[in-house]
Q: What sequence folds into this?
């Protein structure tokens, strides 16, 4: 983590530079934002135009909610550089509803009603904040980084395990090339070259990939130039079991978002209060309700972008609000999103591996400041061990009832819940052991 921020939360870099720095956050988030609607569209075998509706709405509403989260409206928004996007936490619940007789209308209705869990929960965040002392916060931040590493590794290798081109020497070379550029610019670059290291590294990789003929423009050629997402495109239905499933996913997201916001506070050198968490989670819940009305899936804060801040030292909320503007434009101009999606995975992987590893480093630094005691060691070890167990071997939960798979499907959630519970039940050490 950078101890000296290039731009702090309230700084406003010049517009041209801000645009470049905002593009950096856009590149980090875009894949994750469109992944959820693409997965739901493909698994439920929706018509292409319906999947495009899900994607466009996800981009547009991500942009709007990101702007509100960064700038704030009254009590809504954390007023820190937080990118918001569709969350994988809701995929299992969404697919279960999608395959029922209620279809996509059921997903939207259950999302809308379930968002009340987050909206109401936000008012209890000052109390929830007390459950996150440094040992819990550091563990959660570290678990966020660790759970993102497998994603970065697959990007680095150019796809999924089992793909024909997975981890070919060419893919690994391309990703390493981008990684070396990013590291070099962060370490030795000055001014804009250091601040925009990720976007410069990815643009360089993209140009090389273009010269090698790796870039496919099929998506760009087939994309509409302009499209406005339609409210209630799929209609609304309210299945009781679906609402329960979505409500559980929203409870999990409160824990996950709290962890992300605490990690964001660490990256931006901001003391996160209960008021911050209340504004952030309220924005998250209201954004998810808006997403349901505008025909896409629920939202949460994006941990990828905390890595961008940690790596570059650019913590300006005005830069990330501009990212929100770019995301909204991508939702209105699908051809723009299609162009971003044409970036080859190894190019993303070279930057992604570095960004997510920086979140782990931030967690280690936070844990370095707590007393070294048997109790703290147990909290960290059990939480991270079990969180990694779920992250690396999700099959571990396959034979459990659906409810448990739903709640424990994310390593971040498992690690966070265990850290919270262990911190509450393990007795305090009388004398810390000095090692």
A:
């Amino acid at each position: 983590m950078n101890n000296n921020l290039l731009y702090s939360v309230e700084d406003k870099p010049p517009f041209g530079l801000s645009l470049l720095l905002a593009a950096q956050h856009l590149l980090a988030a875009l894949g994750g934002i469109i992944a959820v609607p693409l997965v739901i569209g493909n698994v439920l075998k929706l018509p292409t135009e319906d999947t495009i509706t899900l994607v466009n709405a996800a981009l547009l509403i991500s942009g709007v909610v990101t702007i509100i989260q960064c700038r704030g409206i009254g009590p809504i928004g954390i007023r820190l550089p937080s990118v918001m996007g569709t969350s994988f936490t809701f995929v299992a619940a969404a697919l279960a509803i999608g395959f029922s007789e209620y279809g996509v209308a059921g997903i939207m209705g259950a999302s809308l009603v379930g968002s009340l869990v987050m909206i109401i929960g936000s008012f209890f965040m000052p109390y929830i904040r007390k459950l996150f002392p440094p040992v819990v916060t550091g563990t959660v931040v570290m678990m966020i980084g660790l759970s993102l590493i497998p994603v970065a590794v697959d990007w680095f290798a150019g796809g999924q395990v089992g793909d024909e081109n997975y981890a070919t020497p060419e893919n690994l070379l391309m990703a390493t090339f981008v990684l070396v550029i990013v590291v070099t610019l962060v370490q030795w670059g000055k001014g804009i070259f250091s601040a925009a290291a990720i976007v410069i590294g990815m643009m360089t990789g993209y140009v090389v990939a273009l010269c090698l003929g790796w870039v496919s423009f099929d998506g760009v050629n087939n994309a509409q130039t302009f499209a406005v997402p339609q409210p209630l495109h799929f209609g609304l239905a309210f299945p009781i079991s679906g609402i329960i499933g979505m409500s559980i996913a929203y409870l999990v997201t409160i824990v996950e978002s709290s962890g992300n916001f605490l990690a964001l506070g660490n990256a931006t050198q901001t003391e996160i209060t209960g008021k911050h968490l209340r504004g952030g989670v309220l924005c998250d819940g209201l954004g998810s309700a808006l997403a349901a009305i505008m025909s896409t899936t629920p939202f949460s804060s994006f941990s990828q972008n905390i890595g961008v801040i940690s790596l570059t030292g650019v913590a300006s909320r005005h830069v990330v609000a501009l990212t929100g503007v770019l995301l909204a434009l991508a939702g209105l101009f699908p051809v723009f999103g299609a162009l971003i999606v044409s970036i080859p995975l190894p190019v993303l992987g070279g930057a992604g591996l570095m960004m997510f590893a920086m979140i782990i480093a931030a967690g280690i630094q936070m844990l370095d400041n707590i007393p070294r005691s048997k109790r703290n060691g147990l909290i960290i070890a059990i939480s991270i061990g079990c969180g990694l167990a779920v992250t690396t071997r999700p099959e571990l939960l396959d034979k459990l009832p659906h409810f448990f798979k739903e709640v424990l499907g994310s390593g971040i959630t498992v690690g966070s819940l265990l850290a919270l519970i262990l911190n509450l039940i393990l007795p305090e050490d009388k004398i810390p052991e000095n090692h």
Remarks:
- Residues 15-43 form the longest helix (29 residues).
- The chain has a mean pLDDT of 89.
- The radius of gyration is 21 Å.
- The chain is about 70% helix and 0% strand.
